[in-house]
Amino acid sequence: MNTIFRLVVRTQLTRGRAVALGALGTLAVILAIAARAGADADVNRSMHDIIDGLGLAVLAPVTSLVLASAALGDLAEDRTLVYVWLRPLARWKMALGALAASLAVSLPFVLVPLIAAVLIGGTGGDLLVATIAGAVVAVTGYTALFLGLGLRVKRALVWGLGYVVIWEGAVARTARGAARISVQVYARSLLAAIADYAPPRQAASVGASIIVPIVVVIVAYVVTVRWLQRAEVA
Amino acid sequence: MTAQAAATVEFAGVSKWFSGVVAVSEVTVSIGPGVTALLGPNGAGKSTMLRLLCGLTSPSRGSVRIKGRDPRGDPDVFRDIGLVPQQEAVIERLTGRQFVTMAAELSEVPDAVSAAARNIQLVDLEPGDPRPLKAYSKGMRQRIKVAAALVHEPELIVLDEPLEGLDPRQRLRMIELFGRLGDEGRTVVVSSHVLDEVERFGSRVIVLGQGRLLAEGDFREIRDLMDDRPHRLRVGTDQPRHVAAGLLAAGAVVGARVDATSVLVDTDDVRAFRHSVAAIAKDANARLLEVVPLDDDLDSVFRYLLARRT
After folding, report:
1. Residue B18 contacts A where some CB pair is shorter than 8 Å
2. Is A85 on the interface with B (CB under 8 A)?
3. Are residues B203 and B291 in the same domain?
4. CB A75 to CB B91 under 8 A?
5. Per-domain residue ranges for chain A?
6. Number of structural domains in chain B
7. CB distance from A18 to chain B under 8 Å?
8. Which of B224, B239, B264 is the last residue of a domain?
9. What residues make up the domain containing B243?
10. Exposure pattern of A48-63 as b/e (b: 16+ CB <10 Å)?
């Protein structure tokens, strides 16, 4: 599993991806600086909006999508999965190594700029804890979902973006039933609850915001393992 | 020990189709220790058969067994399999040593780093080469794939067109290596669409065409079978009618068609034809300009075997 972890970290983090995701994270920092500098603005409200609207709604899903879908997806796409797949390694270990590697790379790309933004905003410890909790929930949930997606479909980025924009960004924000199967809703609910802001539309309870993402991760992981077991490897 | 008991690989009525297109059809064959060449033209189903053999894809019908085990059912089977896939792709960001060490670690080889270095040297590459694999030539990539396939000392070694991209000296070295592995009692399955290449393996041959098993056995038997088929040749001459008449009268050909500068002939015995054609031309006071086989390529051999089978 350690070998898979190292391999995935090495292959998924290309220079292009690092620059693009780094730039996206920097945007949060720039917005925080602007919010702090704006004399008339409600810094507390602005900081929450940055974390909620940019951090959890854009930075976390996009970063997770780009990196997790590439973890096994890049190997499948360039036909090098065979060098890993044809080894006596249990598929659950393979998937776990790839999941751990994706989290290990994704979390810093999301947490570091968001924590920096909160610190720059100077809005206190609650928002910092809430940001960390919300981001961890979002990144973990999305990473588990997109890990299998990369393995299963071609153009996983397009499908994943479609899911993030259409389902999570539009449908789940308006339809209560859809909101129950949206990672973003749970992450945003947790952020609002811990930082004591007004809950988002279709908000979930704190308990559900912790338990449901864990269930999502487990189910997505099991599905990924099954797909690995049944994969038709080129 | 019976041949069946000694078999490392067993295909039983295996078919594989993709979206209605049949890639492998009703193949039943056993492969035991030593070198076995899988011969067939491009599109014959060789790569699909090797993928089935390694468990990279499931048979649509029938079963594949490696030492009695289903390669799709248990990753532990892969301790016994080393594959050199046909595709040139390798994990380009790794160095050769990292690539082979990764293979060794995933196969739980003790002291993976040393095992990797040994196998890289075995294929005449330098273990200390710091370049990533994207900087490797096609031949170097092919050899590093061989090193990765051998690093865990598998009992079954599967090589899909392994000589592609290698220069003549490297080809010779690889053929020697595969022969040595076969002599050690390992089961080596090599696919190729080049008849002469297979001849140099000096091995048992399985001939595939259009996804079907056309022939199997010792290479010499297959070669004889190929030589015994009807051949078509063009005989260039300044007296095509006289030469055609002479060839038919001597029984050297079974059919002849004449045009302005040549005779198109069919013969059942190409060796006898080659021995007699010059004398017949001389007797007919004709100049023999050329004798060109028109169907000596591998594809025509496979077409013949396929027609013979049906």
Report:
1. no
2. yes
3. no
4. yes
5. 2-230
6. 2
7. no
8. B224
9. 230-295
10. bebbbebbbbbbbbbb
By DSSP bridging, strand B231-237 and strand B61-66 are unpaired
Are B214 and B247 a contacting pair, CB within 8 Å?
Answer: no
Residue with tokens 């393996």: B201
Domain identity same for B270 and B177: no
**Residue among B55, B75, B90 whose CB faces A91 most closely:** B75
Instruction: Tell which of A12, A87, A94 to mutate to test the B interface (max B CBs under 10 Å).
Output: A87
Q: Which of A80, A82, A87 sits opposite B107 (nearest CB)?
A: A87
Residues of A in contact with B108 (CB under 8 A): 88
pTM equals: 0.82
Asked if residue B302 belongs to a domain, the reply is: no
8 Å CB contact between A48 and A197: yes
User: What is the reported pLDDT for B302?
Assistant: 65
Query: What does the pLDDT look like over B70-96, one tens digit per residue?
Result: 999 888 999 999 999 998 899 999 999
ipTM of the complex as predicted: 0.86
